Amino acid sequence: MLSTTLERSKKVLFTDSLRNSSADPAYQPSQVSPAKRKGDTLTALNSKGVKIGSCLEPSYVSFAKDDFYNAIINQYESWTLWTKDVLSGKILALLYDNIEVKTGTRQIPDAAIYLQTLIRTDRNDPLAMAVHWEDTHLNAWLNQYLKQIRIEGLLNQWITKYIEKDDWRNQ
Predict the structure, then answer these.
(1) What's the pTM?
(2) Which of 14, 39, 133, 159 has the greatest CB tally within 10 Å of its CB?
(3) Summary count for the chain: helices (H), strands (E)
(4) 100 lies in a domain?
């Protein structure tokens, strides 16, 4: 599944959305002091000089630059390095897909203790399958298939089983 961005839509056809995600920052509350906040946590994260980590995934780099335009955006290849930098204070927060944040924080023992995820409802990230731009019949068939398995309840079951298997709701 890919984020359905306008830039990607120039090169591929997207199926209907399989699920929605959001770009949720994870941060150490102790690092975002009341003096730094000047309002809410999102405002604090968007302050000049603040360093935010993002994965190399283009849509999340774009989200980070759009949402935290005053901050310095550091791009990371590795979830482990990224999380360690938040825990050590080298960056104030990391930004990625909400399920990936939940899964990743469980991979590093201290992360689940010290990091808090800011669940956002204002940043929607629809995820879909991409097909070659000329494969209109395949795209139509996939959309029909998705419609059918949604009706039957299979799509949510499969997403829970195969994509969100490490999600906290299933433990």
Answers:
(1) 0.68
(2) 14
(3) 9, 9
(4) yes
